[in-house]
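Task: sequence design from structure.
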């Protein structure tokens, strides 16, 4: 497997059997250990993943619960404060959200995928106490 080329954003299989581009996995890499180029590409790749998994994240908006009596998990997403939280909770009670566009139309939040991406990057950086989308 010498001279293997990787594309930015390419999905690489790392399971035990049938690896095509990876010889072995030494462990997880921390955000701090990424190259500057990898750090600059990460938001674009992460947003691409969020968009590809839109229904999973829409489901999160439909089912998210409070973390504490004073803090709802939706408020941990950048750009969502008490005002948007109330609108989201009211709207999802009427009927579940079906897409990011539906959230935008009914709640008024633009670029839902970008906000989710921003939260995921914060979690990858380790800048949060509560993890919604990334394993510690």
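Answer:
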């Amino acid at each position: 497997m010498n001279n293997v080329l990787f594309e930015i954003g390419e999905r690489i299989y790392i399971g035990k059997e049938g690896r095509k581009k990876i010889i072995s996995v030494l462990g997880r890499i921390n955000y701090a250990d990424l190259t500057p180029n990898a750090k600059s590409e990460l938001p674009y790749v992460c947003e691409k993943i969020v968009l590809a998994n839109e229904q999973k994240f829409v489901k999160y908006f439909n089912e998210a619960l409070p973390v504490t009596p004073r803090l709802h998990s939706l408020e941990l997403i950048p750009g969502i404060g008490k005002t948007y939280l109330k609108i989201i909770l009211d709207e999802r009670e009427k009927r579940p959200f079906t897409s990011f566009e539906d959230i935008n139309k009914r709640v008024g939040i633009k670029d839902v995928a970008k906000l989710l991406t921003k939260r995921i990057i914060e979690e990858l950086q380790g800048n949060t106490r509560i993890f919604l989308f990334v394993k510690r």
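The chain has five helices and two strands.
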